Amino acid sequence: MAVHNEVQTGGRLNPWEMAQAQFTAAADRLKLRDDLRAILSEPKRELIVHFPVRMDDGSLRMFTGFRVQHNINRGPAKGGIRYDVNVTLDEVKALAMWMTWKCAVVNIPFGGAKGGVICNPKDLSAAELERLTRRYATEISLLIGPHSDIPAPDVNTNPQIMAWIMDTYSMHLGYTVPAVVTGKPLAIGGSEGRMDATATGVAAMVELAAAEATLDLNGERVAVQGFGNAGSIAAKLLHKRGCRIVAVSDTQGGIYDERGLDPDKVSRHKQEHSTVVGYANAQPVSVAGVLEVPCYILIPAATENQITSENAARIQAQLIAEAANGPTTPAADRILFERGVRVIPDILANAAGVTVSYFEWVQDLQSFFWTSEEIADKLSHVMTRAYREVHAVAESERCDLRMAASMLAIQRVAEATQQRGVYP
Ligand code: NAD
Predict the structure, then answer these.
(1) What residues does ligand 1 touch, defined as CB less than 6 Å away?
(2) Does the CA dihedral 24-26-30-33 come out positive or negative?
(3) Which residue, by CA, sits nearest to atom 10 of ligand 1?
(4) pLDDT > 70: percent of the chain
(5) What is the pLDDT of residues 31-47, one digit of tens each?
(6) Which atom of ligand 1 lies closest to the CA of 275?
(7) Cα of 249 to ligand 1 centre, how many Å?
(8) What pLDDT score does 4 carry?
(9) Is the pLDDT of residue 1 over 50?
(10) CB count in 10 Å sphere of residue 253
(11) pLDDT score for 11
């Protein structure tokens, strides 16, 4: 069904169909019992909220938001909040399901959730964004809480937005509850290392995969799609590690320089001009073209559905580390596997973000904070263990890393579900 749909839609897939197709393939391979399969294939809760926000000109505007909890059998629900015009319930459901598997891959005691609001934050003033955030936080406070469901930043949300959510939730209760969100500023209970966490994990996965292929990363060419939190910091870390960042992009377009870009300078350009486009001495490339430039390592760090059956054959990279969630469709996965391209899947490659979020939550609950060295040590331990465990499944099953990571995760969640039993 997935392949058929991909052909019909020029390669793009509804993210929920994509998450379902990946789940079904791994569940089939695991010979997962029908009752467990039925439980794990659906979200536990889906909340849709429509709410008014007062705009600066005095008018009222209605917004629609979502919060979905996919599964909470291994612990409280955990997952980011996305602000984007393209947010849909199906996208949020898919992202929530991927969060369940991601937390299980790195073996942290959380279930999966995700949230989103349909909006373009670039069209809102800071005051409008704050009012939207506080009202959305109020609407989803039916679900969120430090022991039930803990949001974090995702596309177009940041530590300031997390601070407003934490403050709103705390105001309702009359006392401060730092552990209700992660990815907060340090001053209000954030963690050392959270801003860089996702990218640090992506870079660590690239290092591990390179070491396995006895590849020297020095001078190796890297292309990064999406120059936001995950993508820009991954580019900086790999640049520091000696890689050559040959291309980067954002929604406006891409830039390419075979000799290598300086990601710090590109960041400054983006801060000034709100895009990487127009960076001096670089060749312009199209948004889609960045995925196809000559390079060894490709880091998709934007959104879902970027590497599809339509462009997978043209990708020149040999190693893809998915900083984004859901960038590769199942049909593209098959094409890449047949071509020998190694894909480190999202639920492993970008799992360091939620891992440091877990550290932040633990620190908030115990009101005792760790140094950046302690965070880095603990993170490295969790990510290296997860990589080795996924790799071991891939070897024994002779499958790609996405199938291996999915099997490992689904097995862990299924075991928890089975041991808890069905209530009542
Ligand atoms: P962000 O909003 O900071 O950055 C997103 C970037 O992608 C922006 O530069 C935007 O211009 C660009 N972009 C969007 N669509 C694009 C397209 N089609 N082509 C090129 N560029 C495009 O978001 P982020 O937090 O960096 O998240 C990026 C991805 O990483 C998302 O898939 C997110 O779910 C995933 N992720 C983020 C974290 C985290 O801790 N921030 C953790 C795990 C996974």
Answers:
(1) 153-156, 198, 225-231, 249-251, 287, 301-303, 323-325, 350, 353
(2) negative
(3) 250
(4) 98
(5) 999 999 999 999 999 99
(6) 11
(7) 11
(8) 43
(9) no
(10) 16
(11) 74
Tell me how far apart the alpha carbons of residues 55 and 349 are, in angstroms, rounded to a whole number. Answer: 39
Name the phi and psi angles at 77, rounded to 5.
-75, 145
In this structure, the residue with its CA closest to atom 30 of ligand 1 is: 324
Instruction: Tell me the angle at which helices 159-173 and 126-139 cross, rounded to the nearest 10 degrees.
Output: 50
Strand 253-261, strand 244-250: pairing: antiparallel
Q: How far, in Å, is the centroid of ligand 1 from the Cα of 323?
A: 8
Instruction: Look at the alpha carbons of 225, 84, 78, 378 in this order and tell me if their dihedral is positive or negative.
Output: positive
**Predicted confidence (pLDDT) at residue 136 exceeds the cutoff of 60:** yes
Classify residue 343 as exposed, middle or buried by CB count within 10 Å of its CB (0-12, 13-18, 19+).
buried
Atom of ligand 1 nearest to the CA of 157: 2
- Residue whose CA lies nearest to ligand 1 atom number 42: 353
Structure tokens at 420: 């808890």
Encoded amino acid at 152, one letter: A
Q: What's the 232 CA to ligand 1 centre distance in angstroms? A: 10
Q: Which of 195, 224, 303, 304 to mutate to test the pocket of ligand 1 (most atoms within 8 A of CB)?
A: 303
Kindly give the distance from the C-alpha atom of residue 409 to the centroid of ligand 1, in angstroms, as a whole number. Answer: 24
Q: Is the pTM of this model over 0.85?
A: yes
Residue with tokens 């995702």: 154
Q: Which of 229, 233, 207 is nearest to 220 (CA)?
A: 207
Confidence label for 12 from pLDDT (cuts 50, 70 and 90): confident
Query: What separation in Å is there between the alpha carbon of 310 and the centre of ligand 1?
Result: 22
Interacting residues of 378 by C-beta distance below 8 A, sequence separation 6+: 359, 370
Question: For ligand 1, what atom is nearest to the CA of residue 227?
Answer: 9
194 SS3 class: helix
Residues annotated as part of the active site = 114
List, in order, residues 6 or more apart from 126 with CB less than 8 Å away: none
pLDDT value, residue 250: 97
Question: Where does the pLDDT of residue 116 fall: very low under 50, low under 70, confident under 90, or very high at 90 and above?
Answer: very high
What mean pLDDT do residues 273-292 have? 96
Could you give phi then psi for residue 250, rounded to 5 degrees?
-145, -165
Helix, strand, coil percentages (3-state) for the chain, rounded to 5, are 50, 20, 30
